[in-house]
Amino acid sequence: MSQSLENSKVFCVNPFIQAMLTAQGSMKPCSLFTGHVTDGSQELSVYETPVEDIWNSEHLRRVRRQMIAGDKVSECSSCYLMESRGEISGRIAANQSWGAALWGNPRNQSVGELAESALAGEGAMRSGPSWLYLEFGNLCNLRCRSCNSRYSKSIAKDRVHRRWENADEQPPFGLRGVGTADNSTEIRLRGSEVSSYSRLAPGKEWSQDREFILHELLRDAHNITKLQIGGGEPVMAPDTAWLLETIVSKGLSSSINLHFVTNGTKYDQKIADLIGCFDEFAIALSVDGFSLLNEYIRKGSRWRAVSDNVVKYCSAFPQSVYIKTTVQAYNMLHLVDLANYANSMGIRLQCHFLNNPRYLSCFQMPAKARKAAATKLRQYTSETLYPEVTSVSKENASELLKIAQVLEEAAGDLDPRTIADFINFTSDLDASRGQDILQLNAELVEFIGEAGVPWEPERP
Ligand code: SF4
Fold it and tell me: Over the stretch 137-151, which tens digit does the pLDDT of each residue have?
């Protein structure tokens, strides 16, 4: 069984080992999984259902059984799409981490053993998740164009940006009233009646409920080998330092690999010191462009602050910091500037393509624009532009070449409706934010015009 699972095109370790707890209290195996774990009609939430019951819900048991049987899982279509484009999907990355039997899999369990354990329980896992991925609230100071209300309270307050969200992302996306200023405990699960029942501390979000974190989430803490903390912006979340301190004081920082994802606009010395207590950790700085382009895409960020914090993180943790970039329509023609910056700072660049919202995807842009973006990357990575080749710049070159290849090979004609959405979304946000795509991305606008689509936004 193990051999066939290792070569399987659908098997993924994530549903067997990882629980991602969203800011709204719902759960899924990873960030790419479409939707959330449900009871068949509505999202299950830790405000109503214990973590253990969601972990072994019929939904996740069905996903595990399908993967073992070699059947495609509809919720995993993002990974299949990435693989069809030649990208390293979340599935492949997770399976590789597990197969390497390093920190994430200290007992060197094979995928066959995971599957046997699940089959013995008809899809239920005997032990809890060993990888935890916590979206530690959705408090965030930024309104990134590719983001939504689920991840940023600032976007939830932005009426123009919110108009562009689908119903799943708009408040109430799961819970209403929990942790709000009026301290209400009223909760409303999508599609259900308003309920005043919450099993967690009154008026608190799960990420602020220390009892829940200590006694439920970390109950089986010795089984946890990987902890990813994101947000929102975790440096702003009130209890991030407490969570890290708790793990360190329990002596778990030597057995847990910490992955901390921040937008880089804030630096907190206490949090930095606590991260440094872990034996193994990585700090991902979400940066989507160099200087003004980052400010354009990630509204609210100031490049001066981000670059100052990059210096602080790099000085404190030179081997453990990397830049995590979401490759999208807005930055695909400008990745060289960011790569140049990363190389000058000696920081690794890790790129992944944006899938949603669809109208911001590179794959919805004119093929000529993608080719031009790829050519720039190839030129940059050629030896002549590398007078000083370092191990980091070599790694970055190989990352950029992978991006170039996917951009070159991607097929598809312009979809008039999607490109119209891109134009209208961009214009709406530009107008409300005092920004102008022509100042930073005139080349892309020209490519769209050359493809026969004039830049003529409809009035909202
Ligand atoms: S296959 Fe992809 S979407 Fe499905 S659980 Fe694995 S990483 Fe997540």
Answer: 889 999 999 999 888
Interval between CA 12 and ligand 1 midpoint (Å): 6
Cβ atoms of 450 and 365 closer than 8 Å: no
pLDDT tens digits for 259-294? 999 999 999 999 999 999 999 999 999 999 999 999
**CA–CA gap between residue 103 and residue 257 (Å, rounded):** 7
Task: Check residue 281 and give left, alpha or beta (phi > 0: left; psi -120 to 50: alpha).
Answer: beta
The yes-or-no verdict on residue 189 having pLDDT over 50 is no
Residue 237: alpha-carbon gap to chain centroid: 17
Backbone angles phi, psi at 327, to 5 degrees: -80, 125
The residue to which tokens 């010795």 are assigned:
222
Task: Give dist(CA 75, CA 237) in Å, integer.
Answer: 29
Beta-carbon contacts of 398 under 8 Å, excluding residues fewer than 6 positions away, are none
Residue 231 near residue 151 (C-beta atoms within 8 A): yes
Q: Which ligand 1 atom is at minimum distance from the Cα of 91?
A: 7
Pocket-testing residue among 8, 14, 17, ligand 1, by greatest number of atoms within 8 A of Cβ: 14
